Protein backbone atom coordinates (compact mmCIF):
# COMPACT_ATOMS: atom_id res chain seq x y z
CA UNK A 1 0.00 0.00 0.00
CA UNK A 2 2.85 2.37 0.83
CA UNK A 3 4.51 1.67 -2.52
CA UNK A 4 1.24 2.28 -4.33
CA UNK A 5 0.59 5.61 -2.64
CA UNK A 6 4.20 6.74 -3.10
CA UNK A 7 3.63 6.37 -6.88
CA UNK A 8 6.82 4.31 -7.11
CA UNK A 9 5.71 2.03 -9.93
CA UNK A 10 9.10 0.33 -10.29
CA UNK A 11 9.33 -0.65 -6.65
CA UNK A 12 5.69 -1.76 -6.61
CA UNK A 13 6.29 -3.91 -9.67
CA UNK A 14 9.40 -5.46 -8.12
CA UNK A 15 7.64 -6.15 -4.82
CA UNK A 16 4.58 -7.64 -6.50
CA UNK A 17 6.65 -9.94 -8.66
CA UNK A 18 8.79 -10.99 -5.68
CA UNK A 19 5.64 -11.96 -3.79
CA UNK A 20 4.83 -14.31 -6.66
CA UNK A 21 8.13 -16.04 -5.99
CA UNK A 22 7.41 -16.19 -2.24
CA UNK A 23 4.01 -17.78 -2.88
CA UNK A 24 4.82 -20.13 -5.73
CA UNK A 25 7.89 -22.05 -4.58
CA UNK A 26 6.51 -23.09 -1.16
CA UNK A 27 3.21 -23.99 -2.85
CA UNK A 28 5.04 -26.15 -5.37
CA UNK A 29 7.07 -27.89 -2.67
CA UNK A 30 3.97 -28.57 -0.57
CA UNK A 31 2.06 -29.84 -3.61
CA UNK A 32 4.88 -32.23 -4.47
CA UNK A 33 5.00 -33.49 -0.88
CA UNK A 34 1.23 -33.78 -0.73
CA UNK A 35 1.05 -35.76 -3.95
CA UNK A 36 4.05 -37.92 -3.05
CA UNK A 37 2.73 -38.76 0.42
CA UNK A 38 -0.95 -38.34 -0.37
CA UNK A 39 -1.90 -42.00 -0.59
CA UNK A 40 -0.27 -42.75 2.76
CA UNK A 41 -1.86 -39.72 4.39
CA UNK A 42 -5.29 -40.63 3.05
CA UNK A 43 -4.82 -44.23 4.22
CA UNK A 44 -4.77 -42.90 7.79
CA UNK A 45 -8.49 -42.19 7.37
CA UNK A 46 -9.23 -45.64 5.96
CA UNK A 47 -8.55 -47.65 2.83
CA UNK A 48 -11.45 -46.15 0.91
CA UNK A 49 -9.92 -42.68 1.15
CA UNK A 50 -6.88 -43.71 -0.90
CA UNK A 51 -9.02 -43.46 -4.03
CA UNK A 52 -9.04 -39.70 -3.43
CA UNK A 53 -5.33 -39.51 -4.21
CA UNK A 54 -6.02 -38.90 -7.92
CA UNK A 55 -8.35 -36.06 -6.99
CA UNK A 56 -5.70 -34.62 -4.69
CA UNK A 57 -3.15 -34.63 -7.51
CA UNK A 58 -5.51 -32.93 -9.97
CA UNK A 59 -6.46 -30.24 -7.45
CA UNK A 60 -2.81 -29.73 -6.47
CA UNK A 61 -2.04 -28.93 -10.10
CA UNK A 62 -4.73 -26.26 -10.11
CA UNK A 63 -3.41 -24.80 -6.86
CA UNK A 64 0.15 -24.63 -8.20
CA UNK A 65 -0.99 -22.91 -11.39
CA UNK A 66 -2.98 -20.41 -9.33
CA UNK A 67 0.05 -19.79 -7.09
CA UNK A 68 2.17 -19.10 -10.19
CA UNK A 69 0.61 -15.65 -10.52
CA UNK A 70 0.70 -14.75 -6.84
CA UNK A 71 -1.58 -12.25 -5.15
CA UNK A 72 -2.99 -10.60 -8.27
CA UNK A 73 -6.26 -9.92 -6.49
CA UNK A 74 -4.42 -7.91 -3.82
CA UNK A 75 -2.69 -5.79 -6.45
CA UNK A 76 -5.98 -5.20 -8.23
CA UNK A 77 -7.80 -4.33 -5.01
CA UNK A 78 -5.05 -1.93 -3.88
CA UNK A 79 -5.14 -0.20 -7.25
CA UNK A 80 -8.91 0.28 -7.20
CA UNK A 81 -9.62 -2.53 -9.66
CA UNK A 82 -11.80 -4.65 -7.38
CA UNK A 83 -14.71 -4.74 -9.84
CA UNK A 84 -12.69 -6.32 -12.65
CA UNK A 85 -11.19 -8.69 -10.10
CA UNK A 86 -14.68 -9.74 -9.02
CA UNK A 87 -15.59 -10.21 -12.69
CA UNK A 88 -12.62 -12.56 -13.13
CA UNK A 89 -13.76 -14.57 -10.11
CA UNK A 90 -17.25 -14.68 -11.57
CA UNK A 91 -15.99 -15.99 -14.91
CA UNK A 92 -13.91 -18.65 -13.13
CA UNK A 93 -16.97 -19.64 -11.08
CA UNK A 94 -19.07 -19.82 -14.25
CA UNK A 95 -16.45 -22.01 -15.92
CA UNK A 96 -16.37 -24.27 -12.87
CA UNK A 97 -20.14 -24.63 -12.69
CA UNK A 98 -20.51 -25.20 -16.42
CA UNK A 99 -17.76 -27.81 -16.53
CA UNK A 100 -19.18 -29.54 -13.46
CA UNK A 101 -22.55 -29.88 -15.19
CA UNK A 102 -20.92 -31.72 -18.08
CA UNK A 103 -18.00 -33.52 -16.44
CA UNK A 104 -19.56 -34.89 -13.24
CA UNK A 105 -22.19 -37.05 -14.99
CA UNK A 106 -19.56 -38.42 -17.36
CA UNK A 107 -16.54 -38.74 -15.04
CA UNK A 108 -17.78 -38.41 -11.48
CA UNK A 109 -15.37 -37.00 -8.91
CA UNK A 110 -12.50 -36.93 -11.42
CA UNK A 111 -14.66 -34.67 -13.58
CA UNK A 112 -15.37 -32.40 -10.61
CA UNK A 113 -11.67 -32.18 -9.76
CA UNK A 114 -10.77 -31.42 -13.39
CA UNK A 115 -13.46 -28.74 -13.58
CA UNK A 116 -12.21 -27.09 -10.40
CA UNK A 117 -8.55 -27.26 -11.46
CA UNK A 118 -9.43 -25.80 -14.86
CA UNK A 119 -11.36 -22.98 -13.17
CA UNK A 120 -8.26 -22.21 -11.09
CA UNK A 121 -6.24 -21.98 -14.31
CA UNK A 122 -8.86 -19.68 -15.86
CA UNK A 123 -8.77 -17.49 -12.75
CA UNK A 124 -4.96 -17.33 -12.75
CA UNK A 125 -4.70 -16.45 -16.43
CA UNK A 126 -7.41 -13.81 -16.21
CA UNK A 127 -6.01 -12.15 -13.09
CA UNK A 128 -2.46 -12.09 -14.46
CA UNK A 129 -3.71 -10.64 -17.76
CA UNK A 130 -5.74 -7.96 -15.98
CA UNK A 131 -2.80 -6.95 -13.77
CA UNK A 132 -0.58 -6.69 -16.84
CA UNK A 133 -3.14 -4.59 -18.74
CA UNK A 134 -4.15 -2.35 -15.84
CA UNK A 135 -0.89 -2.02 -13.89
CA UNK A 136 1.70 -2.59 -16.57
CA UNK A 137 3.72 -5.32 -14.88
CA UNK A 138 3.81 -9.07 -15.13
CA UNK A 139 2.95 -11.31 -12.22
CA UNK A 140 4.07 -14.75 -13.29
CA UNK A 141 6.62 -16.90 -11.53
CA UNK A 142 8.74 -17.47 -14.63
CA UNK A 143 8.95 -13.82 -15.63
CA UNK A 144 12.30 -12.26 -14.74
CA UNK A 145 12.38 -9.98 -11.73
CA UNK A 146 14.53 -6.93 -12.39
CA UNK A 147 15.27 -4.14 -9.99
CA UNK A 148 13.83 -0.85 -11.20
CA UNK A 149 16.26 1.51 -12.87
CA UNK A 150 17.33 4.49 -10.80
CA UNK A 151 16.15 7.81 -12.17
CA UNK A 152 18.85 10.22 -12.47
Key features of this structure:
flat; 152 residues; mainly alpha; 75% helix; disordered C terminus; single chain
Describe the structure in your own words.
There is one protein chain. The protein is mainly α and 152 residues long. 75% of the residues lie in helices and 0% in strands. It has 6 helices and no strands. The longest helix is centred in the first third of the chain and has 35 residues, at 9-43. It is flat. The chain starts with a helix and ends in a 17-residue tail after the last helix. Mean pLDDT is 89; it is low at 146-152.
Give a summary of the structure in a few sentences.
By secondary structure, the chain is mostly helical. The chain has helices spanning 2-5, 9-43, 53-67, 72-78, 82-107, 109-135.
Q: Percentage of helical residues?
A: over 70%
Q: What is the arithmetic mean of pLDDT? A: 89
Strand content: under 5%
Give the biggest sheet: none
Unreliable parts: 146-152
Distance between the termini: 25 Å
Give the tally of β-strands.
0
The secondary structure category is mainly alpha
Order of helices and strands: HHHHHH
Radius of gyration from the alpha-carbon trace, in angstroms: 18 Å
What is the 3D shape?
flat
Q: Given the structure, what is the number of helices?
A: 6
Amino acid sequence: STLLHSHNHGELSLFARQTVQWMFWPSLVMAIIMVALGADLLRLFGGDFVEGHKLMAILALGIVVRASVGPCESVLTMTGQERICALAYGVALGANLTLNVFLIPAYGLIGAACATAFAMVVEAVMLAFIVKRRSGFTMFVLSPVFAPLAKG
